[in-house]
Amino acid sequence: MSSNSTTRIFTSGAAGAPSQAEQYTKDSLDISQLQPDPLSQFGIWFDHAKSGTVAEPETVVFSSAELPSGRVSARTVLMKEMDGRGFVFYSNWATSRKAADVQTNPHGALTFYWKELQRQVRVEGRCERLTGEESQGYYDTRIRGSRIGAWASEQSRVLEGREELEKRVEDVEKRFDGKERIPVPEFWGGMRIVPDLVEFWQGRASRLHDRFRYTKEEGQGGEWKIDRLSP
């Protein structure tokens, strides 16, 4: 039998135990518990996650899609900031796959998954670059090696070998030798996802999860509508 015709079933059951999926029973979610706007609600959930329960709760999957092909790509990044406008992470915006996607399609999505809390948050919205001044503020908080690395790496470009990357790092080190303050590269910086949809997902038993979706209402002064979704 060829490998293409072999079906493998993946479950989380313990070895020797019946193959049953994990049941989510840690918590529940009701509309009466929700804040009027999703960013405030996210702040409450994030503070809970970072209180020691979840390792690196700022870890998030950023998904983007290239047009006109429609090909979707996704990668794990670290959310570094959140304000009243949206969620911010930093990257190379000249050579990376995500940069190419955003140049053709300014819409993106974020997915946070906090397994320990049996919670998930989905965000959809518009991508907008931070200014150089805004990006410099965060860039200055990074260790020197990471600041040098931002200059040296042509993210996602093909390398002939590790030596090529190390040579680029060496050249950048020489360029900024003796300088503590390094300017943020013009091709590197923050991307803010300005949400128009945010969904909060709380796992429940028998896959009957609690799901609430916030959507921005048009012509309502930026008010948010909240709907409970079927699991």
From TrEMBL:
Residues 54-174 form the Pyridoxamine 5'-phosphate oxidase N-terminal domain. Residues 155-182 form a coiled coil. Keywords: Coiled coil, Flavoprotein, FMN, Oxidoreductase. Residues 1-22 are annotated as: Disordered. PROSITE patterns: PYRIDOX_OXIDASE. NCBIfam families: pdxH, PRK05679.1. This is pyridoxal 5'-phosphate synthase.
